[in-house]
Amino acid sequence: MSNLASNSTNVANQSAFYLNTKNTWLLPDGVVDLLSTEAVKQETLRYQLTRILISHGYEFISPPMIEYTESLLGYASEDVKLQTFKIIDQLTGRLMGVRADITPQIARIDARLHNNQDTSNPAKSISRYCYAGHVIYTMPKGLFGSRTPLQLGAEIFGTDSLASEVELLDVLFTLLDSTDVIARSHIDIGHVAIFQQLCQLASVPTHLQEKLIELYANKALPELKLLTSKMRQFGELANDFYVLGEAGNDLQKLSERLSTQAKHDAIIAKALSDLTYLVSYLEEHWDANVSVDVTGLGYHYHTGVVFNVYVADESLPLIRGGRFSNHFHHEVDNTDAVRSGVGFSCELNRWQNHIQIHEQPFTVVPYSHVQTILHVPNHPDAPALKQAIDSLRQEGHRVMIALDETDEPEQTTHRLQVANGVWYLEHLAEN
Fold first, then answer.
1. For binding L-histidine, which residues are annotated in this chain's numbering (predicted)?
2. 103 is in an annotated binding site
3. Any domain includes 417
4. Could you tell me if residue 163 is inside a domain?
5. Could you give the number of structural domains in the chain?
6. Stated pTM of the model
7. Residue 54 is labelled as binding a ligand
8. Residue 120 CA from chain centroid, whole number
9. Mean pLDDT of successive 10-residue segments in the chain (431 residues)?
């Protein structure tokens, strides 16, 4: 009986070992390997887009993946804080974070440069930055979202001028155009200041602001109407909060239906004017498909124009952007205050799903040539073979020199052959 029990235990242990071994290579949800074509596509896209940004005068910078939480999260919104992995620094015992967004890091870098006492520092004037690097999320965004996306973005600091929004949108549409997705995209544009100023005028408490934001996000008009009907203490401004949700996608209708107090407020009037100009500009200069939503309130740190770019029929925006002021985050020390700026960011792992890249020919130098020519000292045909290999690589071919007779990958499209002393490409029939 004891032997039977012992055997059962051994079988159970072996099964557990097998299962554990089998699952060793199982990656966490939202974490994937990028192999071959997809990895090349992502790197090609990253290089192409960053070169365009650099050519427009944006300084490429690369912040670290980890920082102490005091600096990493000092400029971060609550959303980013929740998405940030925390670890203990084994050298100091201090709490560190793995970045979940690069924008706050760019804000930190610009703030430090701007507050440098060296008057020759270029960050004393308007500064432009671009970046591309991986971020890590504690939770994926969306049902099949990646937790390790490659984030690319651009920021302009040091100006409140609407011209900076125009420049950034021009650069953004240049990127879209360069990847042939502009015809399948549309931009949704809004302005956070309208809602924020209404809250300021009516002295709306924080908990009620959060409820309104939730209803706007869910497009819950019946619930919004019910809530605003109970906000009698805010006078005529109470109905303005419903008007934002009901007419927020039509600037003319919105302007007509806002209360007299809201219409004549300088901040709200300027926000509506800025939106009208930007919509007209994008339609005229880029033939863009533009929609308006003044209840699209962006991230917590946005304070002005906000925009989302959607591609095809996706429900999640491919690109998010907007303006933030020097009140980026209330915990920031005034000595390192963030300058006003505007920027956008995107995840390249999603962008690459909408593009096609030209497959490079894959050429193999057969092992027979390697063995009889390249491995033979001072072989008279070796220089010509090496020249042929170099020329093909310069033309964009991937050229691999076989290590044995079986070394020919499935993606091979050509073999390098020789006839009468002339090297030529033998095209392989597709399977």
1. 101-103, 151, 155
2. yes
3. yes
4. no
5. 1
6. 0.87
7. no
8. 32
9. 52 54 82 92 97 98 97 86 96 98 92 69 77 97 90 96 97 97 95 94 94 93 95 92 95 95 96 97 95 83 91 92 70 62 96 91 96 95 97 96 96 96 92 55
